[in-house]
Every structure is written in C-alpha cells, then in structure tokens.
Amino acid sequence: MNILLRLQLFFQITGHYASYFLAYIFETIFFLIFVVISLIAMIYIFRKYMARLQLRIGPNRVGKFGLLQLIADALKLVGKESIIPKLRDDFAYKAAPYIVFIGLVVGFVIIPYGSFYWIGSLTITHSNVSLILFFGAIAMMPIGEVLAGISSHNKYAVIGAFRGIAKDVSFEVPMMISAVSLVMMDSALSRTSLNFETLVSTQFIPFGILQPLGLFVFMVAMIARSSYTPFDLSESDSEIVSGYSTEYSGMRFGLFYMGMFGSIFLGSLVVSLLYLGGFNGPYSSYAGFIYLLIKGLILVLISFLIWLSMPRIRVDRFINFGWKILLPISIINLIWAGFLTLGVIS
Amino acid sequence: MAEWTEVNFGPQHPSMHGVLRLRVKLDGEIVKEVEPIIGYLHRNAEKIGELQFYCDNMIYFDRMDYVAAMNMEVGYLEAAEKLLDIEVPERAQWIRVMMAELNRIASHLVWLGAFGLDLGMLTPFFYCFKEREKILKIFTEVSGSRQQLNYMSIGGVYQDVTDEALDHIKTFIREFPKELNKIESLFVKNDVFISRTKGIGILSKEMAIDYGVTGPMLRASGVEYDVRKAQPYLVYDKVNFDIPVSFKGDNLARFLVRVEEMRQSVKIVEQTIQKLPAGPYFNQKAKKPLMIRLRGQGEVYARTESPKGEFGVYLIGDGSMRPYRVRVRSPTFKNLSVLPALAKDQMIADLISIGGSIDLVFGEVDR
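Above: the input entities. Below: the structure tokens describing the complete assembly.
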C-alpha cells in the first residue's frame, strides 16, 4: 500500500473523488516540504564542503555548527527590498523566477522515490509516461531563465540569456538521445518503458554499467542544465556580472538560487534513477528511498567537487563540445543500445 | 554591416581588477573594440610628492602598487639615495633585497589567485592567499604593518631584522616550494584551464617591445630582459638566479613565467639569509632627526624591477629639502596599453582572461 492510498483512506469521509483529490494535494505538500528542507540541507552541505576545500570554516555562527544559517539567509532574502529595473517587461520579469521554480518543483513531483519503511511507495505521480512528463517539466526552467534575461533589458542579462539558449540547445539533444537509448533497451523487457518506475525496476544490472557512454552524456548534460562552474556560461560572474539574474534581487533572486541548487539535486536523483539502479537494492521495499537518497547525495558531492575545481569553459568550445563530442557519443551509445536490445530479444 | 552592442565593464564590475573601466563594443560574443578608461583611483601622488620632504614620500609610494609595497619603496629609494648622495650600508641592502623578493612572491600569489577567479576557479584563490598571509605575518613582524609597510627609509631600513624573524622567513622558504607545486598543479593539471589559456592573447615579441611592455609579460614573449640582471641595483649582482623566459607569449606562458619567478625569488631569499652580513642597518647621515634636512641637487632616473615590470622613478632636486619634480614610470600602465590590441576580435571570456593575465594594480596605473 502506498502513501497515496493511505492518505485517501484517511480522507475517505469526504467521499470518493474528494478523498483522492485531498490525498494528492496533501502528498504534494508533504513532498514540497521535503524538497525545500533537502534544498536547505544541500546548500548547507555545499557551503561546508566548499569551506573545507578552500581552507575555511564555513557558516558557524547561527545555531549549532551554523545549521540555521540558511534559514537566516532565506529570511534576509525575503525581507530584502526587491529592486526592480524601470525599463522592464513587467509580466515576464515577474513571472520568470516562478517559471524556473515551478519547473523544478514539478520535476520533483514527477520522479519516483521508492518505498520507505511501513509507509510504502512514496511516488506521487502514477503515470505511464512519467519520463516524458519529466523532460517536459524541466524544459520549463530554461524558458524562465531566457525570459528573465530578455525582460530585464540589461545588456549583460541579454548576453547571458543568449548564452543560455545556445547551451540548452546544444545539450538537450544528446541528453534526449541517451534517454531514448535507455527506453529502447527497456522496451525489450517491459511494455510501459516510458515510465520511471518500470525503468528502475527492470535494472537488474544498472544501466550505467550497460551504457557507460550514456551515463557520461546524461551526467554532463545534467551538469550543464544546472549551470554551475564548468558550464555556468549564462551567469558567469567574472564576465557578464551575473548573467540573466543580474537585475534580480531579494526573494526573486532567491528563487533562481534555489532553482540552481534544486536542479543539481534533481539531476543527481534522475541520474541515479536512470543509470545507477535508483531505489533497487536489498530490502528495497523497505529502504528503497534511502538507497535513492544515498546515491543522489554521492552524485551531488561529485557535482560540487567538479564545480569547485574547474574553471569556466569558453562558450564556443562549450558548444563544440555539445555538438561535436557529446552528440556523436550519444549516437554511438544509441547504436550500442540497439545491439544490446537485439541480444535481449533473441 | 555589423551592429554593435556597447557594454561597460567596470569600474564596479565584479571581475575588474581595481577600478579599470573598459568600454567594449561587442558583435555578439566577439569583442570588436576595447577602450580602457583609467583614472578612477588617481590620487595625485606625484604632485603631492613635490610638497613633501624626501623621506615623507615613502608612504605615497607604498600606496602605488599596494600589493608590492616593498618593491615600490626600493624603487623610490634607488632614485632618492642617488639624488641625496646617501650610501646604504651592506646589511640594509641585503635586507632590502630579501624583503623585495618576499613581496614579489606575495604579489605574484595575489595575481595567481585573481587570475583563477577571472577564469571562474574559486578554490586556488584561497590556497594562494593562505601562503600570502604567511608573508604578511613576516612583514608585520619586521615592519609593524601588513600592506602599507613603510619599512625602508632613506639610508637603510626602519628597524633591523631580528633572528626570530629570520627563523620565520627560513621556515616559510623551506615550506613554500611544496605549497607552490600544489597550487600550480591545481591550475596546470586542469584541461579546461589549459584550453582557456593556451594560445589565447598571443603577444608577439615585436609588439611587446613596441608597446613598452616590461616585466613577466615581456619575458613571456621571449625577451630576456630583467632590470635585476640588465642593470643590477642593490646586491642583485651578488646573488645567483635565473630569468625565466617563454617564447609562446600567450596567457599560459605568462602564468608559467610568474610561477617560475616565484621559485627564483625563493632562491634569492635563501641566498640573502645565508649571506646577510652583520653591521649597521642604516646610514648615520640619514638618522631620524637629520632625515628631513636632506637636500638634493640635480636630476636622477632610477629603474628597478617591480613584480609588474620596470618601475622607474624620476626625481629633480633644486637644492631644497623637497623634490622639485617626482615622476613615475608605471609598468602596469604600459602593460595595460597593449590590452585593446590583444583583445580585438576575441571572445568576451578571453578579454577577461587577457586582462587578468596583465596583473593590473590600479594604485600604480593611476597613481
């Protein structure tokens, strides 16, 4: 029995449809709370980790070990005056941070989380096409970034937005091709292979071992999507001030910031779901969620290490890298997946 | 018919060193025209220098290249002591060389960290500044302050180097090369760093000479010219060191030349510790009560090798207690003048990395 049915039983007094409705709403709210708490924890881990790498101590003033620092920062951001430029496209300017954040949240709602202890499956979205839904949801985030860049009528922001477009176009294609090769291989094993849960549950051997090239391409594309240092072209602080978010301040900036860290976490979770076996493991019907979190956290720490040790790649080399290296690799991976599929069928 | 976007980089831009302002005409990502605008840190140090006694000018020179104050003091004193006809005791000369070389290491470390920041590497910055902090501690011990040192004075140094301070310098010199290798490997073992620096911003030998570029930038373009060798001052002719030269002329060459220069500075400091003679550390003719009464007649030009390049000081004395004219040849100003030519038709990212490789300190450009 999963968490949705448990909630539905709890609300049964309100009637059949209303109880499902309320169950969905409450489960989503629970998960959003989980997402926000995990983001705060992740930013804390990031700051401590960064400080350790850089011979510093990191936050240690607010609360024990600086644990409340992030809450203090969030309160500061909320309380700050939001300075908005006069020459802006008002609606787009104000909508952009929310588009980024909503894309992120929808992404978190769609992916499965496995089961946890007596609660059962924690998955919210029970859809047969959750993979497609997921890619649709995270494709919203660049739209928000581009809107932010163009609507704030700032030259740095416009350059940042253009770089963002170039980046997303050149990395989306290899990412999708490597996802397609996963689905292709999985379709030999099951009939609903556009579903995250099926994709995970058919991984007797993790797909990352069967398709190492696909793992590489997908991971790089996820790093590019979260736009941190080797690929943070759209907001490179030493070149174009802050890129698309130059004119944002206060909580609107906070939303972009959360969006960035959130997409690192989301990307790590998705990579571990698709390639590293996700919540599979011994006793996965009790501890699947824990397996997923551990794999995700390891990938997050790897991402942070890449972030902190790399300089920024130049924009033309970056696009070359996307089209001339990653795309051929992903096509080779697709062919390889085809051979694997043939082997499985025969 | 290209349409240009005119963008302002600086003076409050997060990547600009100090207060440089660049008016950049962009065609998409390509830089079409760069116009550096300077003067935001102009403090009129040269004119103020004419109103002061000779010994008072030191503090204004400290504030020129504020990350290498010792080298600025050496530069000024070379000119002032020649004009005032004051001899410097042997021990003071060795101490000056020691301090100047330590400060050269500190200055190059600042540059190294800032160059990493320009390329988007945050982490090496802290490793560089940790090492620099050790040098600043030594300076605090010998002079009492960290950056604006005011340590040397006409005819010697303000106070003698104690044995304790010498021990600290020895420890630093022993440990530093290992740390430097670590810091260097943070950069050069990174493929992305190599791709961002190799072949970027190539400054040819002829162009470097035409623009009057000096210092590590000139040596990275293949000219073996160092004032410390070409026209030795203080006791540089008695110490043994090499001039690192590269023939590539790109950002990577400038990086490697500066790193190698730090190793040579370590070598020089080691020798100064060994050869440091006993004796007075200042000239009795210029002791404190007499210092302001020094009079100079004639004109003098002295050049020294600051971490940025050839630092020249031109003084005219008219026989009074104040100089008639003070003029400084600023190496960074000359090196900066090459930026528009180097950055033309490059990407924005390369404009920033070329600007970073020049080693700009604005206190010295604007004076």
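Note for the figure: Residues 1-79 of chain A form one domain.
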